[in-house]
Amino acid sequence: MSYDKVKQAAKLIIGTKQVTKMVEAGHAAEVFVARDADPRITIKIVNLCKMMGVKVTYVDSMTMLGKACGIEVGAAMAAVVNE
């Protein structure tokens, strides 16, 4: 399950702004996007990932992604970052 990848990531970036920065800088290995997040937010990062050649993995919900990231609130997206 993709949540395991999130939980096992050595370095994880959570949130739209930070994920966008990491993808633009070429540091993101994989981006996880919650299916129930606002499409106006997620479409930009998905397109950016396509341009930059970063794998995008969809997960069921913001709540589950937040839990997998170890935070108490939902997360629209998270990125696994290369060291």
From TrEMBL:
Name the record gives this protein: Ribosomal protein L7Ae
Source organism (scientific name): Paenibacillus naphthalenovorans
Pfam family, one: Ribosomal_L7Ae
Coiled coil: none
UniProt cross-references to InterPro entries, sorted A to Z: Ribosomal_eL30-like_sf (IPR029064), Ribosomal_eL8/eL30/eS12/Gad45 (IPR004038)
Cellular component GO terms held in the UniProt record: ribosome
Transferase among keywords: no
Keyword entries, A-Z: Ribonucleoprotein, Ribosomal protein
